[in-house]
Automatic annotation (TrEMBL):
It is found in: Nucleus. Residues 5-51 form the Anaphase-promoting complex subunit 1 middle domain. This is Anaphase-promoting complex subunit 1. One of its GO terms (cellular component) is anaphase-promoting complex.
């Protein structure tokens, strides 16, 4: 049919007897058609969901127009059928629903950078509660914060206000980290608009004094210095919102937003655009113009952005840019440059991103030397940041390829273990004495990334945790945390979310020391207990971070439960907030360890929990984060580093507005490790151990694995149940579970199939081949989803899950019976009351099919209801109910055609109606009834059962036979025809006779004569020869055979 360009319009023009078998064939294919059919075939079946998915997959959705649709659709559907799906999935909802209600707000016109987060998709996912509103309140930095003071302040109160304001400023300056994650790629920008950044307000207000504003005293604090890097992060957060249409960014737009004087805002924009991969549009001249400004934050943002955009490409021009900022690697003839250590550290990591996965041996040798060399910058306190950046860069260059380069890495490995503090260092004559406290972190993370997921027992064993009291005294506890993380990244498949696994990470000497807490054990000195407790909390935290990385973005229930229990344990050790009866954790460790360490362990564990639950909006985790954020000064002054982790954790939990999550590919884990490096800053400008700009690299690990189902008939996002099947892994067998859209799917490496299930929507199965590849990019022609959109079609007779969440309504509900049970629609209109709902409204509630809606509107039309044919009104209502209950809207035309044909024949035979085309369609009527009866009897090679209601088929046959009996002249005309072949003299009687002959299959008079000759001998024995006539005239109906037998007897 598709090959002959034969569509529904042509099908409607066929007689019902011919169209019925074709419609039945289409109905049989509708449930599960082959996946390789063209879109036009799916339109024929009434599976517009599969058609639009096919068009989207082939990249033809935008070019599909009315001309294409006309060839396969019926004309009366075109004005109701949406030809293209509108962009309502990502459009913001109305302003009333997006209003930011908060007791701390001063005016409603505030722009906080999150006002666009309320879309049709987020409303579906979080519309039942105020989670998004709460997250928006928690991450808002564009309004003054409330300060609780007395109504009548004095001088001491003013000092207290300044102290509180300074503490709250630490939290405010950390909020952009989380806001960037929360709003990641959630707004489609117009390249004709200027880039806007929400304000970063460090002021406070006094609710007790009519919201009077209080500013930080510039004589006490250097506000400009305090806001320099926070402004940078604030701009990064604003830039991360951008998701240019079709993934394209204009160089002109970037240059247009470039300020005359360099500032931190444009620097942050450059980093954000680079993380999205949009800085490739810049020319090399543009890059050097930026560098010529010699602005620190601009250079950092530009280099990291370029490295992210050219990630893994080894672009020669970019490598020259980065080498230019590493003085130790410049030629001796090159003029001496005094570059801040900050820029050198950023250049080193940028170089690693540029050469990611290349295993470039020369680069690796250079980077391993830089770990121990230290920077030549102006700040010796930032040497650790330089060494850590070198380590990350080295790990990125050889990411996961350590075993492949085993022969060429011997000397490099010895050097790295020497930096860690290994007792044996072979061939280390060319290496000067190093400060292990500076070099160890960089060397550990380098080894972790080089041997990521390699399961190398050799490297893992050399990174073991100290097992003797002497070693515990000489290894820093935070280095133990790094070693645990590194070991587990290497032994990737052995990480398991259970308490037993966490306990297996703790050395026996540490376990014994922790068990003795509170006991009067004279064998253990207090220093030994202190050392054991410090080692314990750091090892446990390292194990929690390992679980967070191993199960990043998976929403694993066991991992979530385990991390939550450890977070509550650390919190209770700081200050008891809830009972933990039955807990097996050691009690009283807070007596042997400082509170700052416990705070860091607590917040790193919570951050790991958010990494596991990334994009899920998990409510229990959000409550915990909100509690940690809102702790008062009585619980200790808020530290900038811990506030930053809370901000990031909230952002991760709602990553991309809940539409993104993290991947666990090698590249993604490396980016996450850099962003989550467990060394927290002490202030907004602290870059001594780890550059704060690196915290934004989580963007490189984020994937848009969300899926939204769209009703193909309305173009609106809807709820729908999905059955998701994941392949067998090391820890789990092949598993299927149910999700409700919009939701986040598993990684491509584990995702096996997706099936639209449930009774309300037509089934649809998407089979996938699990492979270690990144998630399909938006708009990819090879992706099974159209930028995260799956088109589905609602079955007729079912309500959407928005209108009927728990399934208490159905087509057979009381309201529908009230309509269809009445004699006709006019009776329903006469009985309308306060709860009146029109027929077309009820039909549109249970179906989005345009033909059913159009037919119901016709039934409600006043001019149509003014007709006097009540029987036809009742028939139309019953047919409408039948087509809706059986989900066969295409049969409306068949039912109406058959009904009007039999009515026209009746008017002609009984009354004086003129001859019409429908009067002469008795052969088509016969074919339709014969096909239906064959289906009922099971004589065809299809499952037994009729497509047209059997009672209706029987009533049509009985009605037509009764009509022939009503004709007084038919018997005489039939006798004359059979005896002499003479037709009646009038046209009307001739037409009636022809109808009779067609309907009953009466042969010509010559055939009847031959049959009469053959049965003459039998007539002498028996007067009835019906049985013989039945054998000799097999195509003639038994009613006509009886009539022929009687006439032959009378001849």
């Amino acid at each position: 049919m598709v090959g002959e360009n034969f569509g529904l319009q042509q099908l409607d023009n066929l007689p019902s007897g011919i169209s019925l078998p074709l419609r039945h064939a289409l109905d049989k294919c509708r449930e599960s058609p082959p996946t390789d059919w063209p879109a036009a075939a799916y339109f024929l079946l009434g599976r517009e969901d599969l058609a639009f998915s096919c068009l989207a997959h082939n990249g033809e959705l935008e070019t599909w127009n009315n001309a294409n649709l006309l060839s396969m659709s019926t004309p009366y559907m075109l004005h109701l059928h949406p030809v293209t799906i509108p962009s309502t999935v990502s459009d913001p909802i109305g302003p009333d629903s997006a209003t930011f209600e908060d007791a701390d707000s001063i005016d409603g016109s505030m722009t906080d950078g999150m006002e666009h987060i309320f879309t049709a998709t987020t409303q579906l996912r979080y519309g039942r509660d105020l989670r998004l509103n709460e997250v928006r309140r928690l991450l808002c930095s564009a309004r003054p914060v409330a300060i609780q003071t007395s109504v009548n302040p004095n001088a001491s109160d003013q000092d207290l206000q300044q102290a509180q304001l300074w503490q709250l400023a630490q939290r405010t300056t950390a909020l952009p980290f989380g806001r960037g994650a929360f709003t990641l790629a959630t707004i489609f920008t117009l390249l004709t608009e200027a880039f806007t950044v929400p304000k970063l307000v460090l002021a406070g207000r006094l609710p007790a004094q009519q919201n009077a504003t209080v500013n930080l005293d510039p004589n006490i604090r250097n506000i400009l210095e305090l806001k320099s890097w926070p402004e940078f992060h604030n701009a990064v957060a604003a830039g991360l919102r951008l998701a240019p249409l079709q993934g394209k960014m204009s160089r002109t737009w970037i240059i247009y937003n470039k300020p005359k004087e360099p500032n931190a805002i444009h620097a942050g924009l450059l980093l954000a655009l680079g993380l999205h991969g949009y800085l490739r549009v810049l020319l090399i001249t543009d890059i050097y113009k930026y560098l010529d400004q010699q602005h620190e934050s601009t250079t950092v943002g530009l280099m990291l952005g370029l490295a992210a955009s050219y990630r893994g490409s080894m672009h020669p021009a970019m490598s020259k840019v980065f080498y230019l900022h590493i003085p130790a690697r410049l030629p001796s003839t090159f003029p001496e440059l005094e570059l801040p250590t900050l820029l050198q550290s950023a250049a080193l990591l940028s170089l690693g991103l540029l050469y990611e996965g290349s295993s470039h041996l020369e680069i690796m040798q250079m980077l391993s030397g830089e770990i121990g060399r230290g920077s030549a910058g102006d700040n010796v306190h930032e040497r650790e940041a330089y060494a850590v950046s070198s380590g990350f860069s080295l790990g990125l260059v050889a990411l996961g390829r350590g075993l492949e380069m085993l022969g060429s890495l011997d000397s490099l490995l010895d050097r790295l273990f020497y930096y860690i503090g290994g007792k044996e260092a072979h061939n280390m004559m060319d290496v000067a004495a190093v400060n292990v406290h500076v070099t160890a972190p960089g060397a550990i993370v380098a080894l972790a990334l080089m041997y990521l997921k390699t399961e190398s027992e050799t490297i893992s064993s050399r990174l073991s945790i100290p097992h003797t009291s002497y070693d515990l005294q000489h290894v820093r506890p935070d280095f133990m945390m790094l070693r645990v993380i590194a070991r587990n990244l290497i032994m990737w498949s052995r990480v398991y979310p259970s308490k037993e696994w966490v306990q297996s990470q703790i050395p026996e000497i540490v376990k014994n020391g922790v068990k003795s807490l509170g006991d009067d054990n004279e064998d253990l000195e207090e220093t030994d207990i202190d050392t054991a407790v410090k080692a314990y909390v750091n090892v446990v935290t390292g194990a929690c971070i390992s679980i967070g990385l191993r199960f990043a973005g998976t929403r694993d229930g066991q991992a979530e439960e385990l991390l939550y229990e450890h977070a509550v344990y650390f919190l209770n050790e700081i200050k008891t907030v809830c009972s933990t009866s039955g807990s097996t954790f050691p009690k009283g460790i807070s007596h042997y360890i400082d509170r700052g360490t416990l705070e860091i362990c607590l917040h790193l564990t919570v951050l790991s929990l958010s990494v596991v639950m990334a994009g899920s909006g998990h409510l229990r985790t959000l409550r915990l984060l909100r509690f940690l954020r809102g702790r008062h000064s009585a619980d200790g002054p808020p530290n900038y580093g811990t506030q930053m982790t809370i901000s990031l954790a909230i952002g991760f939990l709602f990553l991309g507005g809940g539409m993104r999550t993290f991947s666990t590919s090698n590249s993604a884990i490396a980016a996450l490790l850099i962003a989550l490096y467990p060394r927290l800053p002490t202030g907004p400008n602290d870059n001594r151990c780890h550059l704060q700009a690196f915290r934004h690299l989580y963007v490189l690990a984020a994937e848009a694995r969300w899926i939204q189902t769209v009703d193909v008939d309305t173009g609106l996002p809807v709820f729908a149940p999905l059955e998701v099947t994941v392949k067998e892994t090391e820890h789990y067998s092949e598993t299927s579970y149910c999700e409700v859209t919009p939701c986040i799917l598993p990684e491509r490496a584990t995702l096996k199939s997706i099936r639209v299930c449930g009774p309300r929507y037509w089934p649809q199965v998407i089979n996938l081949v699990p492979e270690e590849s990144p998630w399909w990019s938006p708009g990819s022609r090879h992706g099974p989803f159209n930028s995260g959109i799956l088109y589905i079609k609602r079955k007729v007779g079912a309500c959407s899950y928005i209108d009927d969440p728990i399934g208490c309504q159905s087509l057979l509900s009381r309201a529908m019976h009230k309509v269809f049970g009445l004699k006709n629609s006019r009776a329903y209109n006469a009985n309308r009351g306060d709860g009146y709902v029109s027929l077309d409204q009820l039909v549109s509630t249970f179906s989005s099919d345009p033909s059913l809606i159009a037919f119901s509107q016709l039934c409600c039309d006043p001019s149509w209801n003014s007709r006097s044919d009540d029987d036809f009104h009742e028939f139309c209502l019953q047919v409408l109910f039948e087509c809706m209950s059986k989900d066969r809207p295409a049969l409306l035309q068949v039912y109406i055609s058959l009904y009007t044909a039999i009515g026209s024949i009746g008017d002609f035979i009984i009354g004086e109606a003129p001859v019409s085309a429908e009067t002469l369609s008795v052969s088509s009527l016969k074919l339709a009834l014969t096909y239906s009866e064959a289906l009922l009897s099971g004589s065809l090679a299809t499952p037994k059962g009729s497509i047209v209601q059997s009672v209706f088929v029987g009533s049509l046959r009985k009605r037509l036979e009764d009509l022939f009996l009503c004709s007084t002249s038919l018997r005489d005309d039939l006798a004359a025809y059979l005896k002499s072949g003479r037709w009646p003299s009038t046209e009307r009687r001739a037409v009636i006779l022809s109808l009779y002959l067609q309907w009953f299959g009466v042969p010509t008079p010559s055939v009847i004569g031959k049959v009469a000759e053959r049965i003459k001998p039998v007539r002498k024995i028996s007067r009835s020869s019906v049985a013989l006539l039945r054998l000799l005239l097999p195509t003639t109906h038994v009613t006509a055979i009886k009539e022929i037998d009687e006439l032959l007897c009378s001849f």
